[in-house]
Amino acid sequence: MTETASIARLRFPDTATVRQAEDVQKTLALAIARHAGVVVDCSGLKEADLSAVQLLLAAHRSAAAQGKRFALAAPASDALLGVLVRAGILDPDAPAGSPDADFWLKGAHQP
């Protein structure tokens, strides 16, 4: 975890499955508790399951409830995008604009 002006930048492990869920959850919760915002880099994610999606959604909602920012560093791709599509959370043919789609597909540097 690196910090810049009260924004924690986390890099997801290359594997984020139910086996790593407890450690990932603790890291996300600690970053949210200590910082005004959290940006998560999932670009190195090679293997993911629905627990990774659940952790990110829960962290996003937890941060929002505390008035804090939580975003992905870049739009979901590769393993994470695959899980989102297979689970029916994202429809690759649907128009953008819903809050959930924006969270997954915009990334931290896009409006």
What does this structure look like?
The protein is α/β, with parallel strands linked by helices and 111 residues long. It has helices at 21-34, 50-65, 78-86, 99-106; strands spanning 2-4, 7-11, 15-16, 37-41, 47-48, 69-72. The strands form 2 sheets. It has a 4-stranded mixed beta sheet with strand order 1-2-4-6. It has a two-stranded parallel ribbon with strand order 3-5. The longest helix is centred in the middle third of the chain and has 16 residues, at 50-65.
What is the rounded distance between the termini?
A: 24 Å
Helix content: 40-55%
Q: Report on the biggest sheet.
A: 4 strands, mixed
> What percent strand?
15-25%
Supply the CATH architecture.
2-Layer Sandwich
What is the count of β-strands? Answer: 6
Poorly predicted tracts of residues: none
Helix count equals: 4
So what's the CATH class?
A: Alpha Beta
Assembly state (oligomeric): single chain
Series of secondary-structure elements, N-terminal to C-terminal = EEEHEEHEHH
Structural class of the helices, strands and pairings?
Answer: alpha/beta
Side by side, the strands of the main sheet go 1-2-4-6
**Which geometry do the CA atoms define?**
globular
Return the CATH topology: Transcription Regulator spoIIAA
What characteristics describe this protein?
Transcription Regulator spoIIAA; four-stranded mixed sheet; 111 residues; 6 strands; globular; alpha/beta; two-stranded parallel ribbon
